[in-house]
Structures are given as structure tokens and as C-alpha cells.
Amino acid sequence: MADPITRRGLLYVLSSPSGAGKSTIARKLLASDPELTLSVSATTRPIRAGEVDGSHYHFKTDAEFDAMIEDGAFLEWAHVFTNRYGTLKAEVDRTLAAGRDVLLDIDWQGTQQLKQVDPDIVRVFILPPSMAELERRLRGRGTDSDEVIAGRMERAAAEISHWAEYDYVLVNDDAESCAAKAQAILEAERLRRARRTGLVDFVRTLIG
Fold this sequence. Notes:
Blueprint: E1 11-15, H1 22-32, E2 36-38, E3 42-43, E4 58-59, H2 62-70, E5 74-80, E6 83-88, H3 89-97, E7 101-105, H4 108-117, E8 121-127, H5 131-140, H6 146-160, E9 168-171, H7 175-190, H8 199-207
Helix pairs in contact: 1-7, 5-6
Domain Guanylate kinase-like: 9-187
Pfam families: Guanylate_kin
Function: Essential for recycling GMP and indirectly, cGMP.
């Protein structure tokens, strides 16, 4: 039987240092949950081989990104390494209005901004099991130089220092287990009384 109680969509944030597995967890959530939609960020990062504009990111020039900031197009935006990333307000609002949940793959800077704009967000931080394992994963990609990896490790320590600003903290020592926990958090947050906008009317029909 379908749930007769309607609810509004929620903003579900995943953050982690590079290499901790955030993207893998996000892919697993999206593949298993039809009510969840990924927010496609705008970025000034150059497009990579195999990427599709509008699917992986909305690729923008620096001038275009500046204009979007000026127009108030972003819920949040931040510098990540040498590029900028931003969450498009119109896309998120449209998805939430349709009653769907939005998954945001953003860092702690963006999460802080988003919390100021909309305090009703669910924030999940993903930790690596150890810094040695994080470095092993980064080196395993085979795409970055020693210098770049060293920079990522330095940034990772800074990002991890913000763990206490999040509602939930998961240690990703196994991707399947971590994704299952992330899904359990999402399902529990969907059932919060404050988010179930049709609950009051439903209870009235029960008790008259």
C-alpha cells in the first residue's frame, strides 16, 4: 500500500576528502534509490575525456561563473583546488518542488553556505579508515603526480578537521557497508515528522 502521507523533498549532503569514497557512495545511492536525484554542479574545471556537459557537470568559463554569482544563481559555491564549483539554485528548487530528494556532492565550504541558506539539510561526512589508506587510494588512481597527491593529503587533513559540523559521520572501510548506512540515514530522515507535510491531515482523518 502506498504511503498516504506526502512529504517535501530534502537536501542530502555528502562530503569527504578526495579519495575517501564519496563519489562511489553517491553512485550506489543513486543506483538503488529512484527518489534521489543528483544535483549537477557548475564548474570552471576543464571538461575531461568521456564527460558530458550537463550530465557530469555544467562546464562554465570563469566569466560565465562570475556572471552566475552576480545573478544569484548559486545556493552555494566554493574554490576547490584551482577551480570553482557551485550548486544551481533553480535546478535544486525544481527537484524539491516535485517532491524528490536532492543529493549534493559538495565540500565543507559549500555545506556551511548551504546551511545558512536552508538550515533543514542532512549532512553526512565520510572518513577514510586511515590516512595511509587514503594515500593508497589516491596513488591507486594512477592519475596524479607525487606533488599533487601531497597537496591532496594536506587538504584532506584540513577537510577532516570539519567533521564535527556534520549530522552523521561514516567511516568508509567497506563501500557496500558504508553505502547501506548512508541509505539508512536517508530513509530515516525522510520519516521525520517535520518533513511529512501531509501527516497532520492524515491523523485528523484517523481521530476525527
